[in-house]
Amino acid sequence: MIILTIRTDKPEAELGLYENNDQLEYEVWAAHRQLAESIHGKIQELLGRQQKSWHDLEGIVCFQGPGSFTGLRIGLSVGNALAYGLKIPIVAAQEPNWLEWGIARLRVKEDDGQALPFYGSEAHITPQKK
């Protein structure tokens, strides 16, 4: 089972590619305010280095928080869109061992349907400036 992992709760984003429990590749980069522009390209590069395509993915594990509101929103949106478009399962995890826990859930055929964020507290959204 080829699994994509996504963690975007802090300025350094993380992507991983696993075959079952074996890590094929893992990348950490300073995405900061360029996360939305860079994440798809980084996934494509990760897959390409392993000679895989989007259609080789069989599951997605996302870190669901707590963490940055915008970072989690972007990462989980990308994960959910890929899972929906590729018709593959997605699971979200917030445990300290989120990778192992998420991969184990996928391997026993669990599917959250969609990954929802956990911010750790209410989101602090400021009113739009006019």
Question: How would you briefly describe this protein structure?
Answer:
This protein is α/β, with parallel strands linked by helices and 130 residues long.
Q: Which characteristics define this entry?
A:
5 strands; 33% helix; 130 residues; five-stranded mixed β-sheet; Nucleotidyltransferase, domain 5
The shape, in one word, is: globular
Q: Distance N terminus to C terminus? A: 50 Å
Strand content: 15-25%
CATH topology grouping: Nucleotidyltransferase, domain 5
Strand pairing plus helix content: what structural class?
alpha/beta
C-alpha Rg (nearest Å): 14 Å
Q: Approximately how much helix is present in the residues?
A: 25-40%
Assembly category:
single chain
- The CATH superfamily name is ATPase, nucleotide binding domain
Strand order of the largest sheet: 3-2-1-4-5
Number of helices: 3
User: Regarding CATH, which class?
Assistant: Alpha Beta
Low-confidence stretches: none
Return the CATH architecture.
2-Layer Sandwich
- Averaged pLDDT: 93
Per DSSP E runs of 2 or more residues, the count of β-strands stands at 5
- Overall tally of structural domains: 1
